[in-house]
């Protein structure tokens, strides 16, 4: 399996992009929890990342609210299910861990959802920062709570479970 990586600047610090067989498989922040060792990222090669870099630049400029780059998400079936739910959370909205568990048909599995959320290998693009506690609290984020708060503020997110069909309490945070 061929892996390559590059590092780009962002308003949230350097981001390491990793491709497996030419497809984005990871986006890590500095000091991110569950970040594998640098030597597992492969050779430095920016070529596979043109579209990813363009879309991230547009996102950070406030010109893009959805990403459409191909992803290669490697994880357990449960983790991949959680990550698919993350991709369904619209820009500027949030969901609670319990809401994600319910959407997966696993009521009561909010802790397991939280663990899977924390292992999301493609931060920002797979928006794990949009998941918050049921009371609106900013619980855990692999990139750090400060970054989570800044990303949510950047996107204008202000309520738990906002949006159609969210079923959230609407608690301000």
From TrEMBL:
Q: Which residues form the Methylated-DNA-[protein]-cysteine S-methyltransferase DNA binding domain?
A: 77-156
SUPFAM superfamilies for the chain: Methylated DNA-protein cysteine methyltransferase domain, Methylated DNA-protein cysteine methyltransferase, C-terminal domain
Q: Which CDD domains match?
A: ATase
Q: Which domain of life is it from?
A: Bacteria
Q: Which GO terms describe its molecular function?
A: methylated-DNA-[protein]-cysteine S-methyltransferase activity
Supply the InterPro entries for this chain: MethylDNA_cys_MeTrfase_AS (IPR001497), MethylDNA_cys_MeTrfase_DNA-bd (IPR014048), MethylDNA_cys_MeTrfase_DNAb (IPR036217), MethylG_MeTrfase_N (IPR008332), MGMT (IPR023546), MGMT_N_sf (IPR036631), WH-like_DNA-bd_sf (IPR036388)
Q: What is its main location?
A: cytoplasm
- Keyword Disulfide bond on this protein? no
Give the NCBIfam families listed for this entry. ogt
In the record, the note on similarity to other proteins reads: Belongs to the MGMT family.
> Other remarks?
This enzyme catalyzes only one turnover and therefore is not strictly catalytic. According to one definition, an enzyme is a biocatalyst that acts repeatedly and over many reaction cycles.
What's the protein called, per UniProt? Answer: Methylated-DNA--protein-cysteine methyltransferase
Source lineage: Bacteria, Bacillati, Actinomycetota, Actinomycetes, Kitasatosporales
């Amino acid at each position: 399996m061929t892996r390559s990586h590059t590092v780009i600047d962002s308003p949230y610090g350097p981001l390491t992009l990793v491709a497996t067989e030419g497809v984005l498989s990871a986006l890590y922040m500095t000091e991110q929890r569950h970040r594998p060792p640098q030597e597992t990222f492969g050779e430095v090669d920016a070529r596979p990342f043109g579209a990813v870099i363009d879309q991230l630049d547009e996102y950070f400029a406030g010109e893009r609210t959805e990403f459409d780059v191909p992803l290669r998400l490697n994880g357990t079936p449960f983790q991949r299910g959680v990550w698919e739910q993350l991709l369904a959370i619209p820009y500027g909205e949030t969901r609670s861990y319990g809401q994600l568990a319910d959407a997966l048909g696993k009521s009561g599995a909010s802790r397991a959802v939280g663990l899977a959320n924390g292992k999301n290998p493609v931060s920002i693009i797979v928006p794990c920062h949009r998941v918050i506690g049921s009371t609106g609290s900013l619980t855990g984020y692999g990139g750090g709570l400060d970054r989570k708060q800044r990303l949510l503020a950047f996107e204008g997110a202000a309520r738990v479970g906002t949006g159609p069909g969210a079923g959230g309490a609407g608690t301000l945070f």
